Amino acid sequence: PKTAYVRTKPHLNIGTMGHVDHGKTTLTAAITKVLAERGSGTFVPFDRIDRAPEEAARGITINIAHVEYETDTRHYAHVDMPGHADYVKNMVTGAAQLDGAILVVSALDGIMPQTAEHVLLARQVGVDHIVVALNKADAVDDGDTVLADLVELEVRELLTAHGYGGDSVPVVRVSGLRALEGDPRWTEAIGALLDAVDTYVPMPERYVDAPFLLPVENVLTITGRGTVVTGAVERGTVRVGDRVEVLGAAVETVVTGLETFGKPMDEAQAGDSVALLLRGVPRDAVRRGHIVAAPGSVVPGRRFSAQVYVLSAREGGRTTPVSTGYRPQFYIRTADVVGDVDLGENAVARPGDTVTMTVELGREVPLEPGLGFAIREGGRTVGAGTVTAVG
Ligand code: GDP
Ligand code: MG
């Protein structure tokens, strides 16, 4: 029998962000190793994190790796995303629901394009707290820390430029690689990084009393038990036995099982990453992008107004302006929907502009003011926005 999940500490969702090869996955593995040695978690080796996409049985999505661990004061779900496109899909759409982020910057390489883009996207989706892991500190550490000092300055400036108050952001010099190898000095540095996360990232407000809502990230079948949907609870609380509706699939059903990280639980609440077993729902009826919610609590719609930042070419966005009639994909929560853009008076929006627009989606999804979304085209992100009004 599986051990039940016992909620003894506040739960937060964090994740690593940063340029490819700066050491996000290595650092993630190192954190689990250091904490496992302290007796609060299970070591998850690099290969398990990097190959996690194939491990559907653990209830993780196809393009996000979750690990869990505990510090003295908190329980964390930590996401590590393999590629830049996964950040866009999961983080920018809010699917990852980060309460805080660890920005991994290689002290050898400094700020690179994806470092800057992830900071920008984090700001857009409301990640209010970032802690910096100045990684590969072992490689610049031969008594001469000038390079690391320069990179630290540069990172603080970048964060300030995006409204993160770069002067007060904790910047911790670490070596994920050396900590993984068991080096005592760098093991201690991981401890310092976790202390910084514990103290600098505040416990977010959880809307546990609101009607339950979970955007579906992934759907799987457990032989003999039925259809399972996974995702992060956006708001509210759900218990085994509760009635829910699946928006998109137009079915009403009952939650017959709940799990988090493979452990059964009686009640899941806002902020939890969970798997929900749904009674009598055919596997094909539910898809990523659907919403599981308290019956009648959300009304889907197709039309909304929004404020949108059009990414500049330097940030990986378009090189040419967009105009009314533009028809990109909108990533809203976990859904991916085509939409018609109307720029009204503005007529055109150039890369680097912030504009207001109205959007008519190709199908209905639950919408509400404040909801963040990404705009994508041909496999890249070209905009990030917030819903200002619905209808
Ligand atoms: P990711 O793409 O950001 O997830 O980066 P990885 O964790 O896959 O690491 C990329 C490369 O950097 C690998 O070859 C790692 O061994 C190396 N690396 C990661 N962390 C460190 C570190 O702290 N020090 C050194 N010297 N190399 C590191
Ligand atoms: Mg990686």
Describe the structure.
With 391 residues, the chain is of the alpha+beta class. The protein has helices at 24-37, 46-50, 84-92, 113-124, 146-161, 176-180, 184-200, and strands spanning 11-17, 65-70, 75-80, 100-106, 130-135, 171-173, 213-215, 218-222, 226-232, 237-239, 243-247, 251-260, 263-264, 267-269, 273-278, 291-293, 300-310, 322-323, 329-332, 335-342, 348-349, 354-366, 372-377, 380-390. The strands form 5 sheets. Strands 7, 8, 9, 11, 12, 13, 15 and 16 form an 8-stranded antiparallel β-sheet that branches. A 6-stranded mixed β-sheet has the order 2-3-1-4-5-6, with helices on both faces. The protein has a 6-stranded antiparallel barrel with strand order 17-22-20-19-23-24. It binds guanosine-5'-diphosphate and magnesium ion. The site of magnesium ion has 4 residues, from helix 1. Residues 20-26, 135-136, 138-139, 175-177 line the site of guanosine-5'-diphosphate.
- Which runs of at least 5 residues are low in confidence (pLDDT < 50)? 53-62
- Provide the list of bound ligands, each named once: guanosine-5'-diphosphate, magnesium ion
Strand-pairing-aware structural class:
alpha+beta
**Count of individual helical segments:** 7
Distance between the termini: 49 Å
Shape: globular
Q: How many strands, what sense, and barrel or not for the largest sheet?
A: 8 strands, antiparallel
Overall average residue pLDDT: 88
Please give the number of β-strands. Answer: 24
Classify the beta-strand content into a percent band: 35-45%
Helix percent band: 10-25%
